[in-house]
Write a structure and sequence with these properties.
Layout lengths: L3 E7 L3 H12 L6 E7 L6 H11 L3 E5 L5 H11 L4 E4 L10 H12 L13
Parallel strand pairs: 1-2, 1-4, 2-3
């Protein structure tokens, strides 16, 4: 069972999605699974999800009719096997130490949640 389940809703983000997944899969902390929820994409994002899952056993994909980001995250949470959840948007990317830093902060503080800052890049 993985320590962290990373849930990523995917809807028509083909332009950004590969960079997101590269950043997630190259995390220093490797004890995680990735749950991709294709929320009815029409731009090829769903097929890219399947391709990535075929290349990395940590990645699982679920396809559903479009219902919005909340319904996609809810499905991801229902499928998660990890002790902790991480919610990532498909047009975001993470620094290589993001999971490790948040996980360490949780453990050291005995906390239930941890969050990080973000930078807007255009």
């Amino acid at each position: 069972m993985p320590e962290v389940s990373i849930i990523i809703p995917v809807y028509n983000v083909i332009k950004y999605f590969e960079k997101c997944m590269e950043s997630v899969l190259s995390q220093k902390m490797q004890d995680f699974e990735v749950i991709l929820i294709d929320d009815g994409s029409t731009d090829g994002s769903g097929a890219l999800c399947d391709q990535i899952a075929g290349e990395d056993s940590r990645v699982r994909v679920f396809h559903k009719e479009n219902g919005g980001v909340s319904s996609a995250r809810n499905l991801g949470m229902a499928q998660a096997r990890g002790t902790y959840l991480s919610l990532v948007d498909a047009d975001d990317w993470l620094p290589a130490d993001a999971l490790e830093t948040l996980y360490r902060a949780l453990r050291e503080a005995g906390a239930d949640t941890a969050g990080g800052a973000h930078n807007r890049v255009e």
